[in-house]
Design a protein that fits this description.
HTH-like; 5-stranded antiparallel sheet; Jelly Rolls; Arc Repressor Mutant, subunit A; DNA-binding; sequence-specific DNA binding; alpha+beta; Tscrpt_reg_AraC-type_HTH; single chain
Length: about 290
């Protein structure tokens, strides 16, 4: 199993990229020995859902250190940077993942619109024993489907992913309502408001000055705060959302590249192509054909 779990692509001048070798992957009882390979920061290209079924461990997800314990549910969105640290005790994880290629066919952005900002800020969710038991049973069932002789049609895989997203959306909404009394720091409030505005306006606006004006902040203050809170620039956060939608349109529709560039408010298809290649490493058409 270990050789099939994740594909690692590393070079000396960039973070190792981790993806899945198949579109859909499910496994139970992942042990410390497996995750021991990833004790350096790695960029996750796949969409990954994890349930801690026993013990505890520490991980850093998008620069935030998280203590993961039994019955914690972890959402690792594509593009996340993660690093596993030494675990205090033996732990066991159940794992369901979808490759970057498959996620690109599903409009993940629109599926997670309501809770995407919260998911990025809080990738670890504590579950009740009952809820954790339900997800443990689900992951076990998906594991049996993956390792058995059953052919899992791509549409079934899509339904599994969308079902997980709907369930996770409900969990985040519940957690947010229960945590409503926690007072956010000013920096957290700024990042949360920025993500909300980006989700609303990304198809029309990519200027940092626009979001700074909407939030009644100077562009410098906004950029400094976001960098301190997330480790990313405002432009990079905007680009992540734009590129996620562009990938979904390229993979899940037959829209010409020119129409996609227009729908995302690029001045021309050439500018869109350069923007896309800057963040993805290939042209939109190459990505569609890959």
């Amino acid at each position: 199993m270990e050789n099939r779990l994740l594909d690692l692509n590393a070079s000396s001048d960039r973070l190792p990229d981790i993806d899945l070798p198949v579109d859909f992957f499910a496994w139970v009882d992942i042990t410390p020995e497996v995750l021991g390979w990833y004790n350096i920061p790695c960029k996750i290209k796949a969409g990954i859902f994890v349930l801690c079924t026993d013990g505890e461990l520490t991980a850093t997800i998008n620069l935030k250190e998280c203590r993961i314990r039994k019955n914690h549910f972890i959402v690792v969105a594509p593009g996340s940077v993660i690093q596993f640290h030494d675990s205090g005790t033996d732990f066991r994880l159940s794992f369901v993942g979808f490759s970057s290629r498959f996620v690109g066919k599903v409009n993940l952005l629109k599926s997670t619109m309501d809770f995407f900002p919260v998911m990025i800020e809080n990738p670890v969710l504590p579950l009740t024993t009952e809820a954790a038991g339900i997800y443990k049973d689900l992951f076990s069932l998906l594991h049996r489907m993956f390792t058995g002789d059953m052919l899992i049609h791509p549409e079934i895989q899509r339904c599994i992913l969308e079902s997980l997203l709907y369930g996770i959306s409900g969990m985040y909404k519940k957690a947010e309502s229960e945590d409503g009394n926690r007072r956010l720091s000013r920096g957290e409030e700024i990042c949360k408001e920025l993500l909300r505005l980006v989700m609303k306006h990304y198809a029309r606006e990519r200027r940092v000055s626009f979001y700074a004006d909407e939030m009644r902040l100077s562009a410098q203050h906004l950029c400094t705060t976001v960098k301190q809170q997330t480790g990313k620039t405002v432009a990079d956060l905007i680009a992540e959302v734009v590129i996620m939608d562009a990938k979904a349109l390229l993979k899940s529709t037959n829209m010409p590249v020119k129409e996609i560039s227009i729908s995302l408010n690029f001045p021309n298809v050439s500018f869109f192509g350069k923007y896309f290649k800057r963040y993805v490493g290939m042209s939109p058409q190459q990505y569609r054909n890959s």
